[in-house]
Amino acid sequence: MPVWQLPPVTIHQTMLSVDAAALPWHVADYGIDKSLWPLVPKGSEIIGLIYTGVSETHIKSGELQGQILHAADFTNSKFGWTDRNGHGSHTGGIMVARSFGIARLCAKVVSAKALGDTGTGSDAGIVAAIKWCIDKGAKVLNLSLGSPQASPSINGLLREAEQQGVIACCAAGNDGGPVNQPAAQPFVLAVTAIDRDKRLAQFSSRGDEADVTAPGVEIQSLAASGSFAVMSGTSMADPWVAACLAVKRAYDVARGVAPIKSVAEAIEWLTRDSTDLGAVGKDPMFGVGVPDPAKFSEVDEPEHIGESVGLELVLGGVKWAGRVAKV
Asked: Which helix (H) or strand (E) holds 262?
């Protein structure tokens, strides 16, 4: 049976507070504050965070206040669903922190503590956590955990989930070698990590299974204690992609388009709306490239028969014009 654990994330520094006006580089450099937040529709997207729990302090009075719908423990920790490790709070913050979370305006999180306080977990706990997140309405799953050995029960469940329209984003791994499990499976999205200069992180696992890449070096987010921390790992790149996917789904729902419901559809979107890195086309280090948030709100003409009418939404004071089909 595989031993599921945290990829060896690097913790660079912790901070008691951060300047909310100074956005982390993984937000500012990609224009998320300008490309996404002014236009993003308020939505009901739910992301399932399957990791080490979330910070109770940040939920009560910090960056996760109002952002966590449900939290549960599947590790029998004496601390329950709360994060005593730090990794879960950090990934949750990347996705929905009130000041800098990529999907903070259109998504909420359900947190399933599947890795214990020491960062390890079992097949049974992870399976139960995945099922619970899906039962709570999650259509996007964030699994920043891995093992060199495949689990039939976990892979079977993730395959079934994908067939039902639930997409799992999985960290490729941090050992610089082959893509870990479950990221190596074709029915999930495998995420590698890049630095601020868009170079593949030295620690990032890589291989033909890589689907997409994202910022994963010196990423600022939340700490379990209620403070803040800077970490590096594919565990940081993974929630970046999961949050982007939730935003894309929210955009599509707002304009009456069927949201992405399969890995094939997700890769088609990512291929179109990403910046290609490395070799031309999909490659073992960067997959199809790094998502470009500036492209997420671009609206194509509908390809089905029917009269089309103009659509103009005013969101956050900015007009978003496009076309929708009149049926």
From this structure: none
Contact 56, 90 (CB under 8 A): no
Q: Which residues pair with 321 in a beta bridge?
A: 312
Q: Within 13 Å, how many C-alpha atoms sit on residue 65's CB side?
A: 7
CA dihedral 254, 257, 259, 260 (to 10 degrees): -140
Contact between 220 and 18 under an 8 Å Cβ cutoff? The reply is yes
Full-model pTM? 0.88
Question: What 8-state DSSP symbol labels residue 136?
Answer: T
What end-to-end distance do the CA atoms of the chain give, in Å?
Answer: 52
The DSSP result for 38-106, as a single string, is: TTPPP--EEEEEEES-B-HHHHHHSTTTTTEEEEEESS--TTTTB-SSSHHHHHHHHHH-TTT-TTTTT
State how far the Cα of 67 lies from the Cα of 95, in Å rounded to an integer. Answer: 10
pLDDT by residue for the chain (327 residues), tens only, comes to 565 655 555 556 555 666 656 899 999 999 999 988 988 888 889 999 999 999 999 999 999 999 999 999 999 999 999 999 999 999 999 999 999 999 999 999 999 999 999 888 899 999 999 999 999 999 999 999 988 889 999 999 999 999 999 999 999 999 999 999 999 999 999 999 999 999 999 999 999 999 999 999 999 999 999 999 999 999 999 999 999 999 999 999 998 999 999 999 999 999 999 999 999 999 999 999 999 998 987 655 443 323 323 333 333 333 333 322 222
In what helix (H) or strand (E) does residue 315 lie, and over which residues does it extend? strand 308-315
Measured between alpha carbons, how far is 114 from 128 in angstroms, rounded to an integer? 8
Q: Rounded CA gap, 112 and 3, in Å?
A: 18
Phi, psi of 153 (to 5 degrees): -70, -45
Q: Which two tokens stand for residue 44?
A: 């009901």
Alpha-carbon span 256 to 290, nearest angstrom: 26
